[in-house]
Design brief:
- Helices cover about 25% and strands about 30% of the residues.
- By secondary structure, it is an alpha+beta fold.
- The chain has a 6-stranded mixed beta sheet.
- Helix 1 crosses helix 2 (about 125-140).
- Bound molecules: adenosine-5'-diphosphate.
- Adenosine-5'-diphosphate binds near residues 75, 122, 124, 125 and 126.
Length: about 240
């Protein structure tokens, strides 16, 4: 699977060029910036800390409160600022993708806030946000079972491929399957799909996504190791 049929010259199983940095927001407890090609996201973590409003308190664990926001200049036509139905839905799926990775039970009655800002969007923003949020949680020193790594795979123009751009996602026959996994533990925490696939296609698309997640996991780990060993904050792949 190496011959390129993609408009940006990538192989079907090749991720977009990645950049990851941690500690980018000085005022947050943890933060990260992640780029996949033209998709760019910044995530900041605050907490664990006392929760307001207090009625949201959960007696046996921390509340993971995620916000996903697409900035007005992140897309080609200026987007109306603020949260909308889509951002509310994405905050929910991102929360569910991250929750299994955090030892929330160690911090009862507190909140961990994660703010994710999409600075530039070219598809795959939910998975980029998950990668950044997981790095930001680790950067904040919050105890975790594993990092969460995420990518979408799917179909465009008759070919199965990983890490689709917006142009590929807009193909007539597009399938888009965002997936998040904890690689070390081998657990899937997000699996969604747009489009119609045969059982065989589904199997191949999931394999492409899983392979992509493992590559992302390696870069995430490298980014954290750099940060704490050499104080070098950016990793490119
Ligand atoms: P994801 O970004 O996780 O792939 P979607 O499938 O909902 O989520 O969106 C795909 C892409 O469509 C986004 O990454 C972005 O490039 C574009 N997009 C989403 N919402 C808007 C919007 N309100 N205006 C313009 N483009 C948008």
């Amino acid at each position: 699977m190496s011959k390129s049929v993609r408009s940006d010259g990538r192989a079907l199983d090749e991720l977009r060029p990645m950049k990851m940095k941690v500690g980018v927001i000085k005022r947050a407890d943890g933060s990260a910036e992640v780029e996949f090609g033209q998709t760019r996201v910044v995530a900041a973590v605050y907490g664990p800390r006392p929760i307001h409003p207090k009625h949201q308190e959960i007696s046996g664990r921390a509340l993971l409160r995620c916000r996903y926001n697409m900035l007005p200049f992140s897309v080609s036509d200026r987007k109306k600022p603020g949260y909308d139905r889509r951002s509310t839905e994405l905050a929910k799926v991102i929360t569910e993708a991250l929750e299994p990775s955090v030892f929330l039970e160690e911090f009862p009655r507190t909140v961990i806030d994660i703010d994710m800002e999409i600075v530039q969007a070219d598809a795959g923003t939910r998975v980029a946000a998950i990668n950044a949020a997981s790095l930001a949680l680790a950067d904040a020193g919050i105890p975790m079972r594993d990092l969460v790594s995420a990518v979408a795979a799917g179909r465009a123009n008759g070919k199965l491929m990983v890490d689709l751009t917006k142009e590929e996602e807009d193909a007539d026959d597009a399938i888009d399957l965002p997936m998040a996994i904890m690689s070390r533990i081998g657990k899937t925490t997000l699996l969604q799909m747009d489009g119609v696939a045969s059982a065989q296609e589904l199997e191949s698309i999931m394999a492409l996504a899983e392979e992509g997640c493992k590559k992302i996991y390696a870069v995430q780990k490298k980014t954290l190791i750099h940060r704490y060993n050499a104080d070098q904050t950016q990793t490119e792949a």
